[in-house]
Amino acid sequence: MSHRKLPDRDKDALLRTEALEQAQRISLILLVIIGAAILLLSGRAVFLRLNTAPHPESTSSAVAILTQSARATRPPITSLPPRRVGIVAGHWQYDSGAVCPDGLTEVEINLDVARRVAALLLQGGYNVEVLGEFSPKLQGYEADALVSIHTDSCNIPEASGFKVARVLHSAVPEEEDRLVECLRQEYERATGLYYHKDSITYDMQEYHAFYEIAPQTPGAIIEIGFMDADRVLLTEHADLVAEGIARGIICFLEGPPE
Ligand SMILES: [Zn+2]
Fold first, then answer.
1. Distance between CA atoms of 153 and 16, rounded to whole angstroms?
2. Bridge partners, residue 129, by sequence
3. Residues whose CB is under 5 A from ligand 1 (ion)?
4. Is residue 96 helix, strand or coil?
5. In angstroms, how far is CA 172 from the centroid of its own chain?
6. What is the biggest distance separating any 2 CA atoms in the chain, rounded to whole angstroms?
7. For the segment 6-62, what is each residue's pLDDT rounded down to a tens digit?
8. Residues with Cβ < 8 Å from 223, sequence gap 6 or more?
9. If we measure between CA atoms, which residue out of 128, 146, 151 comes closest to residue 252?
10. Which of 55, 164, 220, 243 has the fewest CB atoms within 10 Å distance of its CB?
11. CA of 136 to the centre of ligand 1 (A)
12. Using CB atoms within 10 A of its CB, is residue 81 exposed (0-12), middle (13-18) or buried (19+)?
C-alpha cells in the first residue's frame, strides 16, 4: 500500500482551506445566534405591547406592572365605586330600647336584623356598614341610603304590623319618598305584615339621625313589627325580615326589576 507524500505547497493550500472553512463555520454559528436573539427580543416586545392593554387574567408580574401603568393613565371605563349604604341598628351601643316582661330586648332584634341586612347587601356588592344608634359617624354621613331599624314595644299586645317614615322636612323629598315606598312594598311582600300607613309618629319623622346625616343622603326609619304579636316573625324568621329590608334598599338603589 503506497502513500504519496504531498508537496509542501499543496499542504499549505490545504491548511488555508481548512482554516477558511473553520472561520466560515464560526461566522455561521454567530449569525444563527444573533438571528435567534433578534427574533426572541422582537417577539417579547410584541408580547409585552399586546399585554399593556387592560387584561384581567394576566399573571406575569411584568405584564401586571405595565397593565397598571397603562390603567393609571386612562380613565376607568366600567368600574363605578360600589354604592354605600348605612344601616343603623336601633339602640345599639346606647341602650336596650323596648323590653318585654320576659326580658326580650328591642336592641337584640334590631342588631340581628341589621347584621343580616348588611350581609345580604354585601353579597350584592354594596359597600355597607352597621352603625350604632348614636354613632359619631352619623354626623354629615354621606351615602346612597341610610336606613334605621327599630321594633315596636310589647306594650300593646294585640298590635301587629310595620311602619316606614322619612324626615318631615326633607332636602331630597322625591328620593326619600321613593326609599320609603320601596321599603314598604318589599317589606310587605317578604313578611306579609300589615302596613300602618296612618300611625307614623312624630318621633319617627323627627328621628335624630335624620338631622345628623348629610341632607343629600336619603334616609328612612322602619319599625319592623311589634315585639309581642309579631315576635315569631321577628325572632324566628329574621331572615325574611332582613330580606324585605335589603330588597327595599336595592329597589331604591337600582329601580324596580323590569
Ligand atoms: Zn326603638
1. 112
2. 86
3. 90, 97, 150
4. coil
5. 25
6. 133
7. 556 566 666 666 766 776 776 766 666 666 665 555 555 444 343 433 333 333 343
8. 150, 151, 152, 162, 163, 164, 204
9. 146
10. 55
11. 18
12. exposed
